[in-house]
Amino acid sequence: MAAGLAAPFVAKGSAQAQAPSRNETLLLVQEYGPNSLDMQGIGSSQPVNGVSLNCYDRLLRFKPVPIPGGGGHQVAMGELEGELAESYQVASDGMSATFKLRDAKFHSGRTVTAKDVKWSLDRAVSIGGFATTQMNAGSLEKPEQFVAVDDKTFRIDFVRKDKMTLPNLAVTIPFVFDSELAIANSGGDQWAKEYLKNNIAGSGAYKVESWKPGVETIYVRNDAWACGKLPQLRRIIARDIASPSTRRALIERGDADVSYGLPPKDFKDLLDAGKINVVGVPIPNGVWGCYLNTQVGPFKDVRLRQAVAWVMPYDKILQASLFGRGVSMAGGTTPKVAWPQPFPYTTDVAKAKALVDAAGGPFSTTLYFDAGNATVAEPMAVLMKEALAQIGITVEINKVPGANFRTEIAKKTNPMVLNRFAGWLDYPDYYLFWTMHGNNSIFNIAAYQNPALDKLVDAARFAPDKASYDANVIDFIKLINAEVPMVPINQPTHDVALQKSIGGYQFQPCREPDFRYLTKG
Q: Which residues form the Solute-binding protein family domain (predicted)?
């Protein structure tokens, strides 16, 4: 294994002078990699966010700020700066924003123009699925909003005043394609879905040199990148290794530079040993939760949803599954204007059993989770199964392959789903827009439909002042406390293991590696 991992550093013959040196090459080991190269495509897996982040540019990005505990930077979601945009200006009436583009070039050599930006945002609001719902979350809803004024000037006309519109331009979805390259290879498909699933057409800091799904993705630096300081690293090898023990061994021996997705116990052990840097950030707007289907199956009955909340072994899960690398969501008292926050449930088997008996007594059901998160989700699921058995609920556990998980949850037919979701914008109303709102996004796994909740979430989103916002948040927190479409279990810490020679770590809301700022020395 070590010999195989070292092989990419070897250069032969005359190519040796041009090949990236070891200090310019990063080896990352992860559980699984991208199943597509197009984050806007239907069914794209979580790691495809990393492709978007590193290979494409957006109009705006979030400003970096130091991580309070040290170890690198995270982003300030309320502070924006230009990426493809050299500058931008919101109109005096607050109903449009105009962007002046940098002199940037696509990987093809073409100059980035406002027409490319328009085609890209038109695509994002029209292609459907996750991408279109994400755009709608910032009131970016229809192609008519996007105007190419001239080659270097682009305007967005707002359909309403929405505090999330500009921040939503900085997440990984509204990235900019080389539209001419995409159209030329579209085969007649308006949005070139098949071509862009398998090819990069961007202007970002990195290009994809090689992509072997399930094996590795190799990135090389775009030396013409115009949207930031040229990265130090010229080559990134992101290798998919399913075995967490193998990934841990590689990072401990120094054969790998960075590892994502290790089990929390391994991160804790590495942190305690002190030979490897471990950087942890509590995931903003992030929760491990158990989603209970409110439309089909037994959990249509709110009493059974409450029973699950009362029997959940919160403390055992935090220690046995996350090894303390998170915050329990049990035992909340007074609702706060915050997300995540603890629910008013603790482990009370008697109370849970009484609710099951009142709802008709014992039954069987199935609990689903993403096998790509098995190192955390599997022990969590086993503890949940044991706890639910105490109150007469027999649970079958079903592991769904990571590449298929989003397709599975989109069916909205599964009775129980264990999932970690983190909203990219750190607002309570934003989280509920994705997971419990009647727009019924893919992440509303409980298929929860409640006009009263929708009214409160929408009112918070467009609240005219802080007092109104706070009141609406408190009211919708009280409502979901009672209705329990999802049982929050804990807020996890996002950990990454790095050799001490690696600097420049930057945590991004999409939770994928940002290679642009990493250094190696």
A: 79-440
